Structure formats: structure tokens, C-alpha cells
Amino acid sequence: MSRKFSFTVPYTVPVEDLHRALTGDELWQARFADAETATLDLAHPGGEGTIRLAMSEKIRPDKIPGIVRKVLKSDLVVSRTDTWQALTGEIAKGSFEGSSNGVNSEMSGSYELRPTAEGCEIEVVGTVKVKVPLVGGAIEPLAEQLHHRVLDSERKFIEKWFAGQASA
Question: Pick from 74, 105, 137, 157: most CB atoms within 10 A?
Fold first, then answer.
């Protein structure tokens, strides 16, 4: 069985600026510069204004919830691939796919970047499935929360990055 989820991530920057940053290499290289256990692969299959970014990271054991540690067969490595399309008017669509090894899980869904009165927001809609007998259903909400926390952490980094760009 899978779990559906949705949430929005608000930004205080204009939609055009956020889209330009999300589809450029500079932001992501800065984001992953100090990530010792992470990998990043960037491509622009649709040309300028589009991106495909593949990320993976080994999760530190102290950051793994107890219920997940109990069923781990090896190190927990999470992978995520995001794609963003070109801006059409003031809207950009994207998608994500994620998985993990150590705990067999899959996540997928869509992004919609759109303007708001305060700046912009990304609507996230997806599903998560954890294929672990008996406890998979208990782990699925944790996987959803992790995705939400990761996107919120990216939001904080991006807004700080924009502030640094403005003062440079």
C-alpha cells in the first residue's frame, strides 16, 4: 500500500528568480559543497531553464528514527531525482522520484512553482511506499516528513543564498 501526501513550501523571492536558481548549477553546487556523504549530478536535458538533478546521500545513524534502524539491512542511502521544466508564464512544473536502500522505499510526485503575494511557493504532491513487512505503513509517514524537512532545509539555504547574492 502507498501513502499520498501534499504540502506547500513558501518562498519570499519572486517566482522568476527562484526558477532561475533552481534550474541553474551554481545554487546546487553551493548547496552540496560541504556534503561529505552526498553526490550530485546536474544536467539540462531541455536546455536553458530546465534541469535534472540526481542526488544521493548516506544518512548518519544518529539521524535515523529508531523504527527504521530496527529494520535496516545496511547503511541507509537515500536518492532523489528532481526535474524542472521551463517557466510558462509564471508557473513551472517539475517532478521528483526518490528511493532508499537499506529500507526498500519509493517516492514520486510533482512540483508546481507559482507566484504568491509574498513571493512564490512550491506545491508538492506525491506518494510514498515502504516495502517492509509489518512496519512499512508506520515508516511511510516518516519518509513523507523527511521529504518535507529536506525541502524546508533547501528553502532556508536558498533564501540565505539569495541574501548573500544581493549583498555581494
Answer: 105
